[in-house]
Structure formats: C-alpha cells, structure tokens
Amino acid sequence: MSSTDAVPTEPIQLADPNEFDDYVADGVVLVDFHADWCGPCQMMEPAVEAVASDTDATVLKVDVDEHQGLASEYGVQGIPTLLVFAGGELADRIVGAQTEEALADAIAEHTA
C-alpha cells in the first residue's frame, strides 16, 4: 500500500464532534458508532482495528454516550452502527456486529 496521503492504521477516537465533518470529508471513512458497555461492539473491536490497518479507509470511532448529538443526527438507533462515507457523502449503513470481511467488502465497494 503506497499512497501520498498516509491513512491512519489505527482507529481514531473522535474527541471533538465539530471535527466529524473534517474526518469524513475526503476519501473513504468507516465510522463506528459504539459504546464501551456494548458487548457486540467489544466483539467487533479486532475486526475494526484490522480494517483500519489493512484497508485504505480511515476508521473513526464515535462513542454514542459522549456524542449523542452525532448519533441522533445520523439516525443511530442500535449499536454497533457503522457508516461508510465516500467523498464526504454517506454511502452505506451497516447495523449490528459484522465480520472483518464484511467491513472490508463495504469499504471496497466505495474505493476506486
């Protein structure tokens, strides 16, 4: 994988909700809406981390307890909810625990 723009190889924890739009503005971004107390979210953690290191997508983790406004804005009703943004636009929505392969496939659909 060689690219002029280095894509983070680890998931990014969203700290400031005002930065959300900046993160999803360019390229393909997988947004993981999760919570620390969510069992399926914890089970998915290795898959999310693998996708961050093995694909050209940026992975952004959003804690729904800390960022309820963002969760509401994007219609997150159950967690884990994963959104795929491509070029700043919401391109895909995946609800529930997923395999690493399913996440990688969702990202691959939007990378050209």
TrEMBL record:
InterPro entries linked to this entry: Thioredoxin, Thioredoxin-like_sf, Thioredoxin_CS, Thioredoxin_domain
Taxonomy, superkingdom: Archaea
Gene Ontology terms, MF aspect: protein-disulfide reductase activity
Site (Deprotonates C-terminal active site Cys): D32
Keyword Disulfide bond: yes
Positions of the record's site feature: Contributes to redox potential value: G39, P40
Xref: Pfam families: Thioredoxin
Limits of the Thioredoxin domain: 1-112
Keywords: Disulfide bond, Electron transport, Redox-active center, Transport
Intrachain disulfide bonds: C38-C41
Catalytic residue list: C38 (nucleophile), C41 (nucleophile)
GO cellular component, one term: cytoplasm
NCBIfam families reported for this sequence: thioredoxin
Protein name, per record: Thioredoxin
